[in-house]
């Protein structure tokens, strides 16, 4: 079963997270397929830019709790998006949770419809947004991240734009993306690559400096008794033991 579908129009490759029954959760299989699709698009001279979008009402629900990818695989995927020599544009028309926000932050440009919602839900299942902090911390407003990391609250597209998670939001996300994609099509490929390199230098520094520590933290937390209780409670649709 293919979890990533691909289409192309006027040098823009669209990669679609296509596992709606699992809310496009980041399983080992989906992460692997997406990495392969990004590699192909990155090498293809006919591709000027990449749009990352989704089927269903969820862009990504974060890590697949039944088949999570190794933390190293998620780090590699996020770094691949950041380091890819072509712009990657997120197109969101639904919900984004936990690890899905890491995908969003790794993209160069992110647009969402006004009905999209966002939440860092890790703390509610007994873990932390460790690996996804690699692209998030250098790009988003630290005060906003403090609130939403620590509380797991849900917030809307306007707030996501104000915190730096989104580039733009609109009732019709495709209308908002039209001038962005046209601008990318009019830009010289080598100039785009070098400009992206300037923009992502600090993010890649964070990967090089912190990836090993955050990968270890993620692995430790996901194997903890607290995480087992939190994930079991989530799957059983009940409150975790620590809820007061």
Account of the 3D structure:
The chain has a 6-stranded mixed sheet with strand order 1-2-3-5-7-10, with helices on both faces. It has 244 residues and is of the alpha/beta class. The chain has helices at 28-43, 71-83, 99-106, 133-136, 142-151, 157-162, 173-185, 189-222, 225-235, and strands spanning 4-9, 12-17, 49-54, 58-60, 88-92, 95-97, 109-113, 117-119, 154-156, 168-170. Strand 2 (12-17), helix 1 and strand 3 form a beta-alpha-beta unit.
Q: What keyword list fits this structure?
A:
244 residues; alpha/beta; six-stranded mixed beta sheet; four-stranded mixed beta sheet; 9 helices; 47% helix; globular
Question: Would you summarize the structure shown here?
Answer:
The chain has 9 helices and 10 strands.
List the helices and strands and how they pair.
Elements: E1 4-9, E2 12-17, H1 28-43, E3 49-54, E4 58-60, H2 71-83, E5 88-92, E6 95-97, H3 99-106, E7 109-113, E8 117-119, H4 133-136, H5 142-151, E9 154-156, H6 157-162, E10 168-170, H7 173-185, H8 189-222, H9 225-235
Parallel strand pairs: 2-3, 3-5, 4-6, 5-7, 6-8, 7-10
Antiparallel strand pairs: 1-2, 8-9
Helix pairs in contact: 1-2, 2-8
